[in-house]
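[scheduler] slot 2 assigned
[scheduler] job type: sequence-to-structure, two independent chains
[scheduler] chain ordering preserved from manifest
[runner] begin chain α
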Amino acid sequence: EFFDEEVESIRYFDIETQRTIGTATKMSIVPNVENKSFLEARAPFLTYLPKDTQLWINTPSLVVAGLDRLMELAHQTYTNLADTISRATPEELFMSGDAFKRLLLNYTRVEYGKAEWANTKLDSTALPQRAFNKDFHLLAQTLIDANDRDIETILMCANTQQVNRFETIFEDLQLDPKYQTTTIALHEGFEDPDAGLYVYTDHQIFDRYQRFNIKNGAQKRQAITLEQLNALEFGDFVTHVDHGVGKFGGLQKIDNNGTIQEAIKLVYRDNDILYVSIHSLHKISKYNGKDGSAPVLNKLGSPQWQNLKKKTKARVKQIAFDLIQLYAKRREALGFQCAPDGYLQHELEASFLYEDTPDQLTA
């Protein structure tokens, strides 16, 4: 199942009923190992890459050792084949570690982890973005100092509103630092004095999590709003998408690695406590259930909520399947063909005081 161009889920299905029978957590892409492979011209995957491709490899020896283990396993399987069918040998189907290494040496490589084949060692003096803690005087002074040292500074903003917000803040502070802005997202900023470049992200400057988009529109519509959050009272039932039904315990400020952040306190069975960041409001919603009946609180760490979600999804899929069957039967069923309108029908229509609407004419 795709979400735009992204694979959202991989599922097994019954070829007769077309119904889902399981979910796959991973997928292995293997070569075509049928007999017709003898007529095919096989080529390693790397040969399809442009010659100017730059490959990033984490500890090359581990990659080579992994390919050698797979080749050894292929040889064992090939030796144990007892049938008389002619099959391709492992060397014809798979690539050994040495062959993979020879191909890699033809490309520009960046080795990290444990570099083993590299001729040049790259030393980076880049440091993570410093913590400004929403101190815009400090930010402005850092930008001014960087400009004096001929270091280019870039503020990466989530949108154009953030760009305008920085301009307004510096204008209110009566400061005029020199910097560039871009609306390209980056997870974390960095400082590289040797390269003459400082890159800062807006979410780190404002001391918040990086904003991301919710793919599921239904979840976004069900997510609690700030207005609903302010209307909640202590003890109100709320639902967390991952942990189930709990009680609202109010807003509290907690220490998160030296940073004070506001979080929502949820109380579960046996007085288990869960703190939800205000940046994760999309994960909670106000509980909606039968009027006058209190729900059963879930327990943190228990599979009860996940099992309930699985059963509910299965039931919804069953309802959808039944509806499809019902509509298919209706479509295949023969209808009753009425006789053409007679003069009595035309006389009745002509006696009607008002003219038919377009919808009535096409009904």
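[runner] end chain α
[runner] begin chain β
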Amino acid sequence: MKAWRFYGFSDMRLDDIPVPELKPGHVLAEILCVQPSVTEAQLAFGIPTLAFDRIRKRLETEAPVQLFGHEFCARVLKVGPGVSRFRPGDRVAARAKLPCLECPLCTAGRSALCRSGPIIGFQLPGCFCEVALLPEIALTHLADNISNSEAACLQSLSDSVASVETANIRIGDTVAVFGQGSMGLECMQIARVSGAGRVIAVDVREEACAVARELGATDVINASEADPVEAIRDLTGGNGADVVFECAGGSARQGLAGTRTLSQAIDAVRSGGTIVGVSWFGGPIEFPVDVLRERSLRYVFPDISTLEHLEHTVRLVASGRVRLKPAIRHVLEGIDKVPQAFEITANKGRYKAINPAQVVLAQ
């Protein structure tokens, strides 16, 4: 089969490799549609972010490596011994981070808290390939009315579900979301259907603001034209939002906001409010702990999504409560287009992309 493998940063090659051997508890699946996450796109070009040191070590010691590709839709071809939930022909999506099943948390029945397990595309082979070996515990069935393209977004959406759950939104809360990329738009929509009374979307790109309006944001602030902190305080009677999601921070080299939106999120939340840190920064940052302490702010990080979160994304999309299609603007055909998808996803502002670029491998 054909699979993309990394020989180093900025060095990916389409190789012919054997089809993986089927193992107990796993399925062999044909990849139908796959997209690089923003994190993967940054790592592919050697830009520091989540897991940079681990990926660098793997490239230095194990190359070529079948990296990345944890956001995908696939069709089951064969099932291994012990697989009970799937059969050939089923379409599936997956969560990325899995429990190790061996640590004290896992053996005590608390595997949702495990942080020691592998990640598809990082420790496990990824899905920029024609056929993948996938653990049954990672997978969920898809509703018939969810397209392959939408299904490839469900892993990201499951992380957004976990982010909103972590926020503990109360009925009628005012929620602000900085950054209207894929996860920002997802958090905005999930917050809206989870009880938020007002949902304020913030971005610096007009194309992203337009999608936020289309997807139901109560108010949309173009931060390239107005001070978002001042605008949010004006909309909330001077108080600030009850909950703020920071989804825009990260490498300025790739058009992300650095730490600017984190500072804005702190200034835009009401005293006693909650900030959910969704972004990855790729290294240490300065953080005004005393300001948060003085204002009794809660800065929280999302829980890792579970299979239950992933299954909920299927219900959200199948019912139309969350819409994914308006953000999907770049769909490429054929496995040879994978490097182009990485280029678009790593430079979304240049290409006016919202969701990562997708690659269709099969129908």
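[runner] end chain β
[qc] chain β: Residues 154-167 form the longest helix (14 residues).
[scheduler] slot 2 released
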